[in-house]
Amino acid sequence: MSTVQDTKPSAALLATMNPAKTTGQSGSVEAQDRFMTLLVTQMKNQDPLNPLDNAQVTSQLAQLSTVTGIDKLNATLEGLMGSYQSSQSLQAASMIGHGVLTSGSNLDLSKGEGLFGVELAGPADAVEVSIKDAAGKTVRTVNLRSMEAGTFPLKWDGKNDEGVVAADGNYTFSVTATQGGKSTDVTGLAFGSVASVSTGAQGVKLNGPGIGAINLADVRQIL
């Protein structure tokens, strides 16, 4: 005589699949408890004519071990990230009051002096800096000597191409470089003084006029 198994899920199985929320348990411990409860419930409600074999049980236990290992790894990584951010905060705090160069095109002229910089990926036999006012008009073009690869702070004396001192204020600049008549990679560097440090979801930031909010990795040179 054949036996027809009831396919309607039992109350125990439904309770396992929709567990009540608990407090005070870590994610890893809670996952283990839920898994073991589900496995026991599954074995209680298995088909007597087609029971779980050892391979199925072993496979499920291996999956539990993998999930638990991932949870522990995530917890370890979160701890390391917290320590790293704390270390970055201390390092960044020591930079408050210091001038830094970072990728940018802003150039502030104050008391007849403006600081900026250039970063060359390779040597160049000609480097040209073009400084423009707020209206986009070129007020000064500076032709620099040949330069090696590296980061170089530069100073603008505030004079325009006619030798007249320009008014203090905000300017922008662009840089071009050539080697043997061919363009070579060059990056303009804006100058700013670090006024504060902030931490958040985006990591540790250095804040200051002229540079805005930048990462520690964005600093090309500390002056």
Quick rundown:
The protein has 223 residues and is α+β, with helices and mostly antiparallel strands. The protein has three helices and 13 strands.
Using the CA coordinates, give the radius of gyration. Answer: 32 Å
Q: State the total count of DSSP E strands.
A: 13
Broad structural category: alpha+beta
Range of strand content:
35-45%
What does the largest sheet look like?
10 strands, antiparallel
Instruction: State the helix count.
Output: 3
Distance N to C terminus: 91 Å
Q: So what's the overall shape?
A: elongated
> Stretches where pLDDT falls below 50 for ≥5 residues?
1-9, 21-25
State mean pLDDT (0 to 100 scale): 80
Element order: H for helix, E for strand: HHHEEEEEEEEEEEEE
Question: What does it look like?
Answer:
This protein has 223 residues and is an alpha+beta fold. The chain contains three helices and 13 strands, in the order αααβββββββββββββ. It has helices spanning 11-17, 27-44, 54-93; strands spanning 99-103, 106-110, 113-120, 126-132, 138-144, 150-156, 169-179, 182-183, 186-193, 196-200, 203-208, 212-215, 219-222. A hairpin with a 2-residue loop joins strand 2 and strand 3 (113-120). Helix 1 (11-17) runs antiparallel to helix 2 and helix 2 (27-44) packs antiparallel against helix 3. 17% of the residues are buried. Residues 1-9 and 21-25 have low confidence and may be disordered.
